[in-house]
Amino acid sequence: MSNLQSIDLNVSISNKLVCNKLNLTIEPGQVWGILGRNGVGKTTLLHTLAGLRNADSGSILLDQKNINELSRKQIAQKLGLLLQQSEESFPSSVIDTVLTGRHPHIDNWSWESKKDLGIARNALEAVQMTDMAERSIDQLSGGEKQRVAIACLIAQSPELYLLDEPNSHLDLKYQIQLLQYFSEHAEDKKSATVMTLHDINLAQQFCTHLLLLFGDGRSSTGKASDILNENHLSELYQHPLHKVETEFGQVFIPGKPD
Amino acid sequence: MLRPAPLLVSLLLLSIASFIIAFSVGSYSLTFEQIFSTLNSRQQNIQHAIIWDLRAPRAYAAFVTGGLLALAGALMQVLLRNPLADPYILGVSGGASAAALFAMSLGLSSAWLSGSAFFGALVSILLVFGLSHGKGSWNPTRLLLTGVVIAAGWGALINFILSSSPEKPLRGMLFWLMGDLSHAEPTALSLIVLIIALLITFVIARQLNILSRGELQASVLGVSVKPLRISLFLLASMLTAFAVTQAGSVGFVGLIVPHMLRLICGSDHRLLLPASVLLGGSLLLISDTLARTLIAPQQLPVGVITAFIGVPFFLYLLNKNFGKDTAV
């Protein structure tokens, strides 16, 4: 089982601090949500955690090894990232796209085996796209493309899932199914998930831990139940939020601007 | 999942057929029986001389050049993530042409010609690589713009040489610029280069499939993008350099062949790349056969023919494909 750790991590984009001396430990069984306003660097932080860009200082350890010393292939066997945007230049079929998720597990000389094809088909089933396997990617809607990207990530079967806005383009039904999938996966101690989210109530429902990015380098981490309160959230979003108890549990609703 | 065998077998048959046609057609026509009996015997007669001394070397040069160009084009399109990319887009042929034309304007012999063309291509490759590689990131847009600007610079130099050169070598220069196989020197080296390149692409083909999903996605899926891009650039450029050295700037093969195959068999590079070599070779060989026979004894530059064949066929495929998929 893999874990991901950041030690005294400083990240910035164009001289704007994303996080300052961030210490995180992400362990199997946990579901982390990253919350923050537009442009505070949620995506940048995820990309840094995935080893795609360098931090200003500090280090990231994947299973106690510095991520900069691992090859992209070694990282990809353990850690997968759902990107916010896809940029297919030469469209291929849905199933072929999902099969690319198996790349880190196949030698350069070999072709995908029957087993890989089976894994890809199961992944398609998990996002309920089985009947679209042979369709071309460029004929899909935004939500369907997002589900193919998720299937590709599932086929990659890493132990750490980093999801950048996993809910974008998705209908409510698929949003819940998706979050359910990753949270159940984590509960079975099989994996850990870190995702950026915009919906506080979904974060409350599915995340065990939260990381709030305030936009000036300050951040706050901890168990979701400890972190989620009106003060924190109102400061985070710079908009008043109120906690309301309902018979389905507590929810946060936005108030009127000050 | 794809089935590579039927496509590759039919392309192989097409290649053999184009060789047979190239052997048979010309000012002295040979029947298929004559070709087969000549190929099977060691008898020295006129037919033997026509095939082995005249037509085979040129057919070989045409096929290899077509293969080199189509493979280079397919690789450039992934490297630049741009469907409009062709082997010449980064200025390799511009450098080769400028150097070759310069050699012609000095009145140097044809042995010097290929040497200087290859030298010009190398200079251009290094120039583009150095300028786009400098400090900072190495992204497709920067590479593309650097290459396009360098190509434009070579274009200006070529025009300068053309306009300041005396009448006599002009015709040869124009043929060279349009792509012409009548003076091609068939060398074993270009075939070896083609085969080695094809072997390398077998190893990296799956990484190319992933690279065409975007650089970031490729990194996430375990591809070391930077070394892959550098080797792609060098590989595609070297292939182009060898092709241009052999036959000048034959247009359209490198752009159209990979696209034809993408429309027919999809974008899996493990199939696309070897198929490109076979189809590119056949297309150029058939074109060259037409180029030397259509208005014989006059010869046309083969580049004219590749465009005449390639453009309508490509438009047909494009139309057929879009008609099928879109509701409008």
The CATH class name of chain A reads Alpha Beta
CATH H-tier superfamily of chain B:
ABC transporter involved in vitamin B12 uptake, BtuC
Subunit organisation of the chains:
heterodimer
Per the CATH scheme, the topology name of chain A is: Rossmann fold
Number of helices of chain B: 13
CATH architecture of chain B: Orthogonal Bundle
Order of helices and strands of chain A: EEEHEEHEHHHEHEHEEHHEE
Quick check: average pLDDT of chain A?
A: 92
Kindly estimate the percentage of residues of chain B that lie in beta strands according to DSSP: under 5%
- CATH topology annotation of chain B: ABC transporter involved in vitamin B12 uptake, BtuC
Q: Sheet with the most strands of chain B?
A: none
Number of strands of chain B: 0
Which spans of chain A of ≥5 residues are poorly predicted at pLDDT below 50? none
Helix content of chain B: over 70%
Which class best fits the helix and strand makeup of chain B?
mainly alpha
The overall number of domains of chain B is 1
Cα distance, first to last residue of chain B? Answer: 29 Å
Proportion in helices of chain A: 25-40%
Question: What does this molecule look like?
Answer:
The complex is a heterodimer of chains A (258) and B (328). With 258 residues, chain A is of the alpha/beta class. Chain A has a single domain (4-227), classed as Rossmann fold (3-Layer(aba) Sandwich), CATH 3.40.50.300. Chain A is built from nine helices and twelve strands. Chain A has helices at residues 42-49, 72-78, 94-99, 114-126, 142-156, 172-187, 200-206, 224-227, 230-237; strands spanning 4-13, 16-26, 31-35, 57-62, 65-66, 79-82, 160-163, 192-196, 209-213, 219-223, 241-246, 249-254. In chain A, the strands form three sheets. Chain A has a six-stranded mixed beta sheet with strand order 6-7-8-3-9-10, sandwiched between helices. In chain A, strands 2-1-4-5 form a four-stranded antiparallel beta sheet, with helices on one face. In chain A, helix 4 (114-126) packs across helix 5. The mean pLDDT of chain A is 92. Chain B has 13 helices and no strands. In chain B, 49% of the residues are buried. Chain B has a single domain (22-325), classed as ABC transporter involved in vitamin B12 uptake, BtuC, CATH 1.10.3470.10. With 328 residues, chain B is mainly α. The model of chain B has no long low-confidence stretch (mean pLDDT 87). The interface between A and B is medium-sized, with 37 and 30 residues.
